[in-house]
Every structure is written in C-alpha cells, then in structure tokens.
Write a structure and sequence with these properties.
Its cofactor is FAD. It is built from ten helices and nine strands. The protein is of the alpha+beta class. It has three domains: 102 residues, Orthogonal Bundle (Butyryl-Coa Dehydrogenase, subunit A, domain 1), CATH 1.10.540; 106 residues, Beta Barrel (Butyryl-CoA Dehydrogenase, subunit A, domain 2), CATH 2.40.110; 153 residues, Butyryl-CoA Dehydrogenase, subunit A, domain 3 (Up-down Bundle). Strands 2-3-7-6 form a four-stranded antiparallel beta sheet, with helices on one face. A three-stranded mixed beta sheet has the order 1-4-5. Strands 8-9 form a two-stranded antiparallel ribbon. Strand 4 and strand 5 form a beta hairpin. Helix 7 packs antiparallel against helix 8 and helix 8 packs antiparallel against helix 9.
C-alpha cells in the first residue's frame, strides 16, 4: 500500500488539489490493486479484508492524497448498511459494481439544517403501492455527484427512519453545485436533491422503521476509517517535515541538528504513534463486538484528528516560509486534515459520547 501510494497516487495529489478535480489516476491505481473490494466477501466480488486491513489501506492512501482516501472510504461507508442488513438481492444489485470500482457509493445523512442531530432530518419517504417515494435535500454529500448509489436516511414516520438505496439515474434525483472547500478538494461534494424520487421496495434496507439504528451501528466502523484518514495525513506531513529539516541548512548546519526542531519532531512522533495505538485498540474491540468499542472509537477519532491537526501545523512551521506556499505539500495536508475534526461526528460530539460512557461505567461499578 505504501509503495502504491508513493508511486501512483502522491505524484498527482497537488494537481488534484489545485484543479479541484476527481483523483482519476489514484482511482485507477486503486482499482488495479482491487482495493475498492477490500471489505466485501468474495461472493460479492471482494477480497474479505478485515477492518484493520481497511484502516491500514486508508492511512497509506491518505498519507499521499487525503482526497483519494476519502473517495475510497466513503464507498465503503455508502454500502455498509446494505452489507450488514440488506437482502441478498439488494446486496447483489449494489455491491459487486462498487467492489470492482466500476460504480461509486455514498451515504446521505446531513441536511441543510441537520448535522449532528440526525433525529431532526426532514427528508421523508412514503410508501406508494409497492414503491417508495422520497422527497428532501441532503447536504455535503461526499462522492456526489460521482457516485452511482446513495444510501439515504429518510423519515418514514413520526419517530421512524429507513435507509433507502437510491441510484443516480432514478427519476427526481438531481445534484447541487460542486462545493468550494478549504481542503479535500479532490473529493467531490455536493447536495443530493430528491424530488418525488420513486424507487422499488426491494431497495429498502430491511425494516424501513429501523434505519436510524442501522446507521448508528455503522458509525463505529466509519469513525475508525476517518481516524485512519487523519492519521495518514499526519504521517504524510511528518515524513515531509523530516525530509525537509534533514536537507535544509541554517547557520551552517542541518535544521535537524537544532534542539528545538528535534523537540518538535519528537512530540509529533509521539502524537502519531499514540493515536495509532488507540485506533488499533478500538479496531480490535469493534472486530469482536465488544460494547466498549463505541466509546473507544470515539476516543480514537478524537485523538487521531486532533493530533493530526497539531502535527500538520507543526510540519508547516518546520518548513518556515516555504510551508506557506503550494510548492510543498504540507500546506495542503494542513487544509485537508481540518475536516477530520468535523465530519463523522464533530470532536465535541465525540467528547460527549466518551463522557456519557465514562459516567455509565462509573454507575455500573
């Protein structure tokens, strides 16, 4: 993964960012390496990789190009509820194309007035004969409009929600303009607009009243992947800082010889390794279904993204004035990593999850 990222993804990362375009070269390289199918069972066209292998893959891609890593992991997130709760027919309809990389996927939760509070979503789905009709607007949807499949969380009753697999070619589906973003500029992001979008009943993921529960159950995995993305960006920036300070000379010696520089480098190394250790611990708990996983993965997402923000900031600082230019990738990495503190549940939300679990465990003990 590291060789693939260095040889076939990193060389195009700056152009992808500057031109705000889809990372076509990276996606082709990932397809040739059969990475899109990593988490899926072989009968669905995948290779059956476990969560740790997905985390490692995302970290290595993100170290080269964060946008490319986001395209990959959002594909996996967009099909997660289908894989875990969908019927055999729905899995067969959606997953093989995504696993091969021929089709893209996304999931649609956020709305113009709804971010962290998913219970407040306004998109509705009503049953009409054997079909379902969806109306609403989803915001900040990664992989839109590039993706073919969209896992849409919609209200089906006063307190009920369903997950519906919408195809980009379904009637009534349209997309907003490309979002102009601070970072992750190679990751396509747009509104998904549903205007009386009619889909067949087979595209409902299991019980149309349990979608909120299904989505929440998938957040452990998606947060682990976002944590891995942040970790990868941090490591990429760290590697750049090491290379620059080893080569750059001031006052007749390499920057790497200065004690204050070495102190910063040591702190960056500790932040990266401690974050990775916590992430791998969370992954192990997720894999065995341990109830502690929800809190632990929130810790990992929080620590990986906060530490990554710190590491990329220090990496830029170590480049001096050059770090503030687009000649070096650290400024892109600093811009890219900020969103990891925001999406998939802001770090303030992660703190609430962690604290709630801590108090609950104190009461039980």
């Amino acid at each position: 993964m590291r060789k693939l990222a260095a040889d076939q993804i990193a060389p195009h990362a700056a152009a992808v960012d500057d031109e705000e375009r889809f990372p076509v070269e990276a996606w082709q390289a990932l397809r040739e390496a059969e990475l899109p199918g990593l988490p899926y069972d072989e009968e669905l066209g995948g290779s059956g990789g476990d969560l740790l292998s997905q985390v490692i893959a995302v970290e290595e891609v993100a170290a080269a190009c964060a946008s490319s890593a986001l395209v990959l992991l959002v594909n996996w997130a967009g099909t997660s509820t289908v894989v875990s709760h969908g019927s055999d027919d729905l899995r067969a309809e959606v997953v093989p194309g995504v696993a091969s990389g021929e089709a893209g996927a996304a999931w649609c939760m956020t709305e113009p007035t709804v971010g962290s509070d998913l219970s407040g979503i306004k998109t509705v789905a009503r049953q009409d004969g054997s079909d379902w009709v969806l109306t609403g607007q989803k915001r900040f949807i990664s992989n839109a409009p590039w993706a073919d499949w969209y896992a849409v969380l919609a209200r089906t009753g006063e307190q009920d929600f369903g997950v519906f697999m919408v195809h980009r070619d379904d009637p009534g589906v349209s997309f907003g303009p490309h979002e102009k973003k601070m970072g992750m500029r190679g990751s396509p992001t747009a509104d998904v607009v549903l205007e009386d979008t009619r889909i067949p009943a087979r595209r409902v993921v299991d019980d149309p009243k349990q979608g909120y529960r299904y989505i929440n159950a998938e957040l452990n995995v998606s947060r682990a992947l976002i944590a891995a993305q942040a970790l990868g960006i941090a490591r990429g920036a760290f590697d750049q800082a090491l290379a620059y300070t080893a080569e750059r000379e001031q006052f007749g010696q390499s920057l790497s010889r200065f004690q204050m520089v070495r102190g910063m480098v040591a702190d960056m190394a500790v932040r990266i390794e401690s974050a990775r250790a916590l992430l791998y611990d969370a992954v192990a708990l997720i894999e065995v279904g341990d109830p502690r996983a929800r809190s632990r993965v929130s810790m990992a997402k929080l620590l990986c993204s906060d530490n990554a923000m710190s590491v990329t900031t220090d990496a830029l600082q170590l480049h001096g004035g050059y770090g503030f230019t687009r000649e070096y990738p650290v400024e892109r990495m600093m811009r890219d990593v900020k969103i990891t503190q925001i999406y998939e549940g802001t770090n303030q939300i992660q703190r609430l999850v962690i604290a709630k679990d801590a108090y609950a465990r104190q009461v039980r003990s």
